[in-house]
């Protein structure tokens, strides 16, 4: 409440924030979480009788405060997919910077609400490039296993994979990868695989097999509200304020921090402004959310002693999307699971890992679709712009050419082997590469640079970063397992020494 005090305040309810809340609460500490998005578990159903709409029919529930939807794949067979919608606190934010649109989850559970649930631990030999200052032995012995278990990570049943029509697109992806000599692997996921098989049997309502992804899953996906946050709430020590956005954090008397919070309604209008005091504050607003706050607070004098590393080291995990047009003898299926379960690994050979992604349109498209993670080494910086009072990001779209070149080490070879071509109808007129976006923002408050080696912000005892902002731009695979594992490592040390 306005004017109150809490021992610990956590900004954001994604992976980093949820880990912090659970571990602090289990250590006996009262935690208050502040989340700008909605509590979707308490949201009313929409016109389709469900909380979340299908990916094929985005509506007002789909996007954060936009008046027009912005589907990542904007066109199909020449037809634009997007449409006008009323401005609403929807679940997926397509946040536009000058050179890139950064997709992020909004709501209690953060990115876990919208993502594909692909839960990948980077290969041990790549870890030194992901987090150079962290002891890899500890991560692989303790914190990655702890994160995988807390998140509920599992693998698809390989027999069902071979049988189900919903993964025909993955089997075609495997065939093409292997015929070109690439390593193809199953990818673990937090989706409840037994539930997905039951969807296939027709015994439960469909979610992954019912075209649900990006705008929320109504069933089957183990999102944070079903895992870490459920356990955190069960302690009785964690409270969450949805539709509350933190706008300022500044030192107050007695070593506390004053946190200014804007309460909004689902149309985005401010309904109240509150100030609370907190003994400790965890920034867990995601790479972009945390970086924007810190850069602004440093520049405007609220936290002037933050160091010069704040805002730096941001990367987009080398994300790039592409589609290939198959021959008529290689249909990818008119039904497709929205949850990817496999990938092509050419990281060592060409700096690219490609997930075999669905294109769940409901019709046969003869298209193979891929989201690649590449070893792009470009790094951008967040800076405060006093004229607009906003935070800019220096990423340039041309930098994605490096990612395209790496992804081509896989797909040029497959196209040449199969005698196929790229699709040019998915991202607008004659665009082959989806190089305008990322799903994987990382960095901006990098571990051991903007913070110490456990996330303590330099210059301000009691302020911590505990989310994707700590990771310097690339994880070689999908990032949330690494974000979770690093948060597990850091919070254990912080509880032992700071509380
Ligand atoms: P987030 O999960 O982004 O959580 C931050 C939270 O803070 C959000 O809920 C946000 O609303 C809130 N917030 C922000 N600013 C404020 C503020 N000022 N006040 C209050 N609250 C605030 N990763 C994978 O590993 N596998 C995948 O398959 C995968 N698929 C993806 C698909 C999509 C479409 C997207 C968008 C992402 C995907 N990701 C995937 C990425 C993954 O979801 C993110 O890396 C992860 O969610 C980041 O975790 P985080 O804790 O850093 O922050």
From TrEMBL:
<keyword id="KW-0443">Lipid metabolism</keyword>
<dbReference type="InterPro" id="IPR052542">
    <property type="entry name" value="Cholesterol_Oxidase"/>
</dbReference>
<comment type="similarity">
    <text>Belongs to the GMC oxidoreductase family.</text>
</comment>
<dbReference type="GO" id="GO:0004769">
    <property type="term" value="F:steroid Delta-isomerase activity"/>
</dbReference>
<protein>
    <recommendedName>
        <fullName>Cholesterol oxidase</fullName>
        <ecNumber>1.1.3.6</ecNumber>
        <ecNumber>5.3.3.1</ecNumber>
    </recommendedName>
</protein>
<dbReference type="InterPro" id="IPR007867">
    <property type="entry name" value="GMC_OxRtase_C"/>
</dbReference>
<dbReference type="GO" id="GO:0016995">
    <property type="term" value="F:cholesterol oxidase activity"/>
</dbReference>
<keyword id="KW-1207">Sterol metabolism</keyword>
<dbReference type="Pfam" id="PF22500">
    <property type="entry name" value="GMC_oxred_C_1st"/>
</dbReference>
<dbReference type="GO" id="GO:0008203">
    <property type="term" value="P:cholesterol metabolic process"/>
</dbReference>
<comment type="pathway">
    <text>Steroid metabolism; cholesterol degradation.</text>
</comment>
<keyword id="KW-0560">Oxidoreductase</keyword>
<keyword id="KW-0274">FAD</keyword>
<keyword id="KW-0285">Flavoprotein</keyword>
<dbReference type="InterPro" id="IPR006311">
    <property type="entry name" value="TAT_signal"/>
</dbReference>
<keyword id="KW-0753">Steroid metabolism</keyword>
<keyword id="KW-0153">Cholesterol metabolism</keyword>
<keyword id="KW-0413">Isomerase</keyword>
<dbReference type="Pfam" id="PF13450">
    <property type="entry name" value="NAD_binding_8"/>
</dbReference>
<dbReference type="InterPro" id="IPR036188">
    <property type="entry name" value="FAD/NAD-bd_sf"/>
</dbReference>
<dbReference type="Pfam" id="PF05199">
    <property type="entry name" value="GMC_oxred_C"/>
</dbReference>
<feature type="domain" description="Glucose-methanol-choline oxidoreductase C-terminal">
    <location>
        <begin position="438"/>
        <end position="487"/>
    </location>
</feature>
């Amino acid at each position: 409440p306005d004017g109150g005090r809490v021992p610990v305040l956590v900004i954001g309810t994604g992976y980093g924030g949820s880990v912090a809340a659970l571990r602090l609460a289990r250590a006996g500490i009262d935690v208050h979480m502040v989340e700008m998005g909605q509590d979707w578990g308490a949201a009313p159903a929409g016109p389709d009788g469900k909380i979340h709409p299908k990916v094929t029919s985005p509506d007002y529930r789909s996007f954060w405060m936009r008046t027009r939807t912005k589907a990542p794949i904007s066109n199909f067979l020449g037809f634009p997919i997007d449409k006008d919608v009323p401005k609403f606190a929807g679940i997926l934010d397509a946040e536009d910077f000058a050179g890139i649109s950064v997709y992020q989850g909004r709501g209690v559970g953060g990115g876990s609400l919208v993502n594909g649930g692909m839960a990948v631990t980077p290969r041990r030999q790549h870890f030194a490039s992901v987090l150079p200052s962290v002891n890899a032995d500890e991560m692989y012995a303790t914190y990655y296993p702890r994160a995988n278990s807390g998140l509920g990570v599992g693998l698809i049943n390989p027999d069902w994979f071979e049988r189900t029509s919903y993964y025909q697109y993955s089997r075609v992806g495997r065939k093409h990868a292997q015929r070109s000599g690439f390593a193809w692997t199953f990818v673990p996921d937090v989706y409840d695989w037994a539930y997905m098989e039951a969807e296939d049997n027709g015994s439960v309502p469909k979610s992954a097999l019912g075209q649900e992804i990006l705008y929320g899953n109504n069933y089957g996906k183990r999102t944070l509200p079903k895992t870490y946050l459920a356990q955190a709430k069960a302690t009785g020590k964690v409270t969450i304020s949805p539709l509350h956005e933190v706008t300022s954090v500044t030192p107050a008397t007695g070593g506390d921090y004053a946190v200014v919070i804007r309460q909004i309604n689902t149309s985005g209008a401010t309904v109240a402004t509150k100030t609370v005091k907190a003994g400790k504050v965890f920034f867990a607003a995601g790479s972009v959310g945390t970086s924007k706050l810190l850069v602004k607070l440093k520049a405007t004098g609220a936290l002037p002693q933050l160091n010069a590393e704040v805002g730096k080291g941001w990367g987009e995990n080398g994300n790039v999307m592409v589609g290939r047009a198959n021959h008529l003898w290689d249909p990818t299926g008119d039904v497709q699971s929205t949850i990817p379960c496999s990938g092509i690994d050419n990281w060592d050979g060409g700096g690219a890992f490609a997930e075999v992604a669905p294109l769940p349109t409901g019709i046969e498209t003869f298209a193979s679709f891929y989201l690649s993670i590449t070893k792009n080494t470009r790094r951008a910086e967040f800076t405060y712009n006093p004229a607009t009072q906003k935070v800019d990001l220096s990423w340039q779209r041309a930098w994605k050419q490096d990612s395209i070149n790496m992804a081509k080490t896989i797909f040029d070879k497959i196209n040449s082997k199969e005698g196929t071509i790229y699709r040019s109808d998915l991202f607008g007129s004659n665009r082959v590469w989806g190089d305008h976006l990322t799903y994987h923002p990382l960095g901006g408050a990098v571990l051991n640079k903007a913070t110490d080696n456990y996330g303590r912000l330099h210059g301000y005892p009691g302020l911590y970063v505990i989310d994707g902002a700590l990771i310097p731009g690339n994880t070689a695979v999908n990032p949330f397992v690494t974000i979770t594992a690093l948060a597990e490592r850091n919070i254990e040390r912080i509880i032992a020494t700071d509380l």
